[in-house]
Amino acid sequence: MLEQNRLKIHINYIFQSTKNDPDLNKKSDIKERFTQINQAYNQLKQRKFHKKVEEERQFDKISSAQSVEEFNDKYFDSTL
Question: Comparing C-alpha atoms, which of 12, 29, 31 is closest to residue 21?
């Protein structure tokens, strides 16, 4: 599901950026629209990047813990 959403976003970005390309479309406000489309897509990619970095940090916490028990005691509720 997540991969399908990413693909839809990417396909829509390609479509919109081609449709609003200032070299292909001579409307007066196209350059501004093209810039907005690129900024929005870059923000989505940046969020994806930051999420991946955060997941890697969590993995590093697990792998650098001296023991599984130490990690569990620190990050999980022991009453579960």
Answer: 31
